[in-house]
Amino acid sequence: MSAILTVTFNPALDMTGALGILQAGDVNLVQKYNLHPAGKGVNVARVLADLGAQVTVSGFLGEENQDPFAHLFVEHGICDRFLRVPGVSRTNVKLVEKDGRVTDLNFPGMAVEGRDIEALTHTLLELADGHDWIVLAGSLPPGVNADQLSDWVQALTEAGKQVVVDTSQHALRAAVSAKPWLVKPNEAELAQCLNAPISNELDTLLARGEQLFQQGIANVVISRGVDGVLWRNHQGWLQAVAPAQEVVSTVGAGDSLVAGLVWGCQAGEEKATVLRRAVALSALAVTQVSVGVSDLDRVYQMIEKISVSPVTMSAHAE
């Protein structure tokens, strides 16, 4: 199997706290919490490593608080090619209420300078020689604009790599213009990307997803939370739905989905098989606070419960 590279431009130490009900404007008592290295690409890499993939990570990492990240990569056998830059990687706060609702406090991250961008560009092109699958994930730090992300997508795609993008807002729109191999927006991110309101009606989602596919995106994956996942490629649309889970936290669910998609696609599996595993990983992710796969047997059991079926747009859909 091919080695996989994940790139996290704006990593973070995620402080996740559990509490009963969040009371805005008041003192809230957090019942338990943990602090762990994260960022979308880091999370994807961790799940991939748990599945047995050979994974390399890169991006920008603050020199002053890099140790937790370095320890994580060693612990999971992940090749560390992050660029260390002056400063501190951000800390994000995620407050998980007992009903599963998550409130994110995401900070902007440390500023990145032009020389750092040039260095990462060099590193990515160097790493592309040994990695056919490249995941570009998460937000962009100050100093990196959306056009730069588009340039990276284009350069890596022209190098013959399968580029997967999981980001949002202007960054997603810019990345789409460079035609990556796969994008994975959720419903809100899809609406932002196309600058068009989107209801959660199936026909509307399929029509909007079709717009991206017709723009040259070979794989359009739309995550819908409890309503499942939609995937469009040259074989048409597939829909997958998992049974309802007791939600502990939704943190890392989308990253687990991306990891499952890349793991299955790089192994050359059939589309339905890939989608079942990816959705199973995502469904199990919401049952835990931490990110990763602790029990592969649970994944196999969940795979058997995932419903996968073709889906088509109605003739009157926009």
UniProtKB/TrEMBL annotation:
Residues 24-293 form the Carbohydrate kinase PfkB domain. One of its GO terms (molecular function) is 1-phosphofructokinase activity. The keyword Transferase applies. Transmembrane segments: none annotated. Keywords: ATP-binding, Kinase, Nucleotide-binding, Transferase. It catalyses: beta-D-fructose 1-phosphate + ATP = beta-D-fructose 1,6-bisphosphate + ADP + H(+). The keyword Coiled coil does not apply. Signal peptide: none annotated. Belongs to the carbohydrate kinase PfkB family. Catalyzes the ATP-dependent phosphorylation of fructose-l-phosphate to fructose-l,6-bisphosphate. This is Phosphofructokinase. The gene is pfkB.
